[in-house]
Amino acid sequence: MVTFAEVYAQFAWAPIRGCPGRFKLLAAERAGDSPCAQGPRGAPLDPMGCAVEVTAHRLAGARDEVLVAILPDGSGLISYRRTDGSVLHTLGTRDAMRRKLGTLGLVVVGSRALPIAGLLPPELAGALDGQSSAELCSLLEDSAIPAAARAHVAMVLAHSRSPELRAELGRVLVRVLTAAGVPCELGEAAMVALAHLGPAAGGEASRALEAVMHSDAYSLELRTAAARALGEVADRNALLPLEWALETKANPLELRLGAAFALAGLELAAAERTTLAGLLERLLADRSEPAMVRATVAALLAQLSPEDLELGARIRVALAEIKVCSTPDPGATEPQP
Predict the structure, then answer these.
(1) Helix, strand and coil percent figures for the chain, each rounded to 5
(2) How far apart are the first and last CA of the chain?
């Protein structure tokens, strides 16, 4: 499975100022080396051997055609195809992708980016007109509605600009998330929607997300989604629980990476940034850590201190070491099936 960490390590990226978790491709790559297809609309993307569908969009908020590819771990590439045929490629963590796609009027559904307008299934499309905030949000708790349809509703409502609706939505999403036996698809959508609401979701949402992240009673997918959402909802108050999730080696790899991506979006004071950088440098230097953890940590360090030349040199050395260690020996014998 191709991940954010692997694509970041494969190409040269620079942090995009003011956009936590997003990076732009530094150098113009040859067509065969590009992380994103420049071919026909809808052509398959093939970053490092993993076919991923590209969706193409003409959007009011973008001057150029927008190409979107969602990677299997939820991160992805947003590329802009200019009128002269050149392409600007950007790479984003899972949460950064959802933030940026939301500003473009797109939302991730499964492995594709789709326009928010017209997203709802037919049985709900007419039900949203003329209802109050409480009535709209109550749809999320209606067990008679399929979980997949309620997940769509959560994503659409999260993009509302109504303060009344957003406040009610935050309360309902917490109830949905903490309900016994919440379907994974609905629970994950609830957490992504809470992340989109951000600090407006409130302290109750922060506590609920932290509890889910720590609890083995939830699936790994939901715990990881909770870690990612926690950084958006709790902001600086999420620093300590997310650091715990990242540095605890006993935690599942997916949860550790989810915490790392969430840390990338925190707005921190100088002292907090220094503490976080120290933790990340220790993880980067620890050769017993999985390559994916070290590569992800390298990306976060580059974003945290983009002007530190000495740190940049250490990051490049570590990335080169990761590539060497993860490259298979061409002379090795293939195992027999």
Answers:
(1) 55, 10, 35
(2) 20
Lookup: tokens for 239: 């620093």
Pairing of strands 13-15, 22-25: antiparallel
Helix (H, G, I), strand (E, B) or coil at 213: helix
| Domain ranges (residues) in the chain | 1-116, 118-246, 268-324
Domain 118-246: which topology?
1.25.40
Whole-prediction pTM: 0.62
- Asked if residue 295 lies in contact with residue 325, where contact means CB atoms within 8 angstroms, the answer is no
Q: Which of 25, 27, 31 is nearest to 7 (CA)?
A: 25
State the amino acid at position 146 in one-letter form.
P
Give the helix/strand (H/E) hosting 76: strand 76-81
Nearest CA among 103, 39, 36 for reference residue 70: 36
Which region, left, alpha or beta, applies to residue 112 given φ > 0 means left and ψ of -120 to 50 means alpha? beta
Length of the chain counted residue by residue: 337
Residues whose CB falls within 8 Å of the CB of residue 168, separated by 6 or more in sequence, listed in order: 133, 134, 137
Rounded Cα–Cα distance for residues 39 and 144 (Å):
43
**Tens digit of pLDDT for each residue in 298-311?**
888 887 777 777 77
Query: What single DSSP character describes residue 80?
Result: E
Q: Spell out the alpha helix ranges (H) of 39-106.
A: 94-103
Residue 214: its H or E element:
helix 203-214
| pLDDT for the residue 181 | 83
Q: What phi and psi values does residue 79 have, to the nearest 5 degrees?
A: -120, 150
Q: Give residue-wise pLDDT tens across range 16-54.
A: 887 778 898 886 544 344 555 433 333 444 444 456 778
